[in-house]
Write a structure and sequence with these properties.
It is a single chain. The protein is an alpha+beta fold. The chain folds into 2 domains: 7-26 and 65-110, no CATH class; 27-63. Helices cover 18% and strands 41% of the residues. It has 1 helix and 4 strands; from the N terminus they run E-H-E-E-E. It has one helix at residues 41-60; strands at 10-25, 65-74, 80-88, 98-108. The longest helix is centred in the middle third of the chain and has 20 residues, at 41-60. The protein is extended and about 50 Å long.
Length: 111
Amino acid sequence: MSTEQEPPSKRLAIFEGEARIGEVIRGLHAIQLRPEDFSSPVALQMALSRIYEAVIKAFEQGPRKQYVAEVRFTDSLGNRVVFAVDLGESPPPFSKDRVKARIVVELYEEE
């Protein structure tokens, strides 16, 4: 009979992808159309009002640039996955605006 405990079950998946480095104006990330915004003419008008308010608020506060990386890769089932990574307010140390990305996914159970 052993008194040692087994390490928790863990799975690791590593994906290779690419990232595009760019600038966005802080505060404009709230500007987006969702599928439910097209469900009716009233829903679309409400979405346009929300976008208008976000634009006005962002420009009243003054534009501040923020660097982001738009990361793209294909998952294990062949689906295209896209997400963004905040790189901060100072320019990232890359010489090109397109770079490689390695995505590490760790699956585990909490105790």
